[in-house]
Amino acid sequence: MSLLPQNAHLIFYGGAFDPPHLAHAKLVEIAKKYFPNAFILVVPTYVPPQFAGTQKVPKAPFEDRFAMSKLNFDGNNILILDTEKYLPQPSYSLRTLLELMKQYHPQRLSFLVGDDQLNGLAKWYQAEKLVKIIDFLVVLRQNKSEAELKAKLPTLVPNLSPKIEILSQPVSEATSTAIRMDQDKHTHWLKPWVAHYIREKHLYES
Question: Alpha carbon of 27 to those of 32, 115, 139: distances in Å?
Fold first, then answer.
């Protein structure tokens, strides 16, 4: 980590990754295509924040989600970090991003998300401050269009003015929830070594 240059373009990609799957990997691949010189920081969530009165608790322990992330994401300038393990809980994105800024002094800090993640942005912890320090790189799902997303932005992020760049290369409809419910049915959404890890560790068994 000490070799990560300062004043670089850092792309933050956070999530529970419970488990990480091919659509997650595709988002990173798309970001690398658009920004080949950037460093992508994959940061599994340690303790998810409470949202809409409920807390989405990961099914797999952090150590397993971190290990699976290492298996799922590979390539030059892609780093898997356990940053949130050492920060106050719950794991608010703003805290993590401020810590990354403190450590690496990036010239640009971007937040990689799927378009569905914009839905609750206005309710994120200190959202007004968050949108001032980063820009969003938004990747569309297969059933979405760039025009449709742009038309919905005023209602998706009311009273906020996030800097958004749309990466127009849709990804699959793979979801971690569906995989957890029936891994055998959705194993094609997993990299083989991630699927093997899940079986070996007996994760997501009822």
Answer: 9, 11, 7
Query: Residue type for 93, please?
Result: S
Instruction: List, in order, residues 6 or more apart from 101 with CB less than 8 Å away.
Output: 109, 133
- pLDDT, tens digit, for every residue of 108-164? 999 999 888 887 888 899 999 999 999 999 998 766 778 888 887 787 777 778 899
Whether 124 contacts 156, CB under 8 Å: no
Q: Which helix (H) or strand (E) holds 141?
A: strand 135-141
CB atoms within 10 A of CB 67: 17
If you write DSSP's letter for every residue of 33-63 in order, what string do you get?
HH-TTSEEEEEE-SSPPEETTEE---SS-HH
Is the pTM of the predicted complex or chain greater than 0.85?
yes
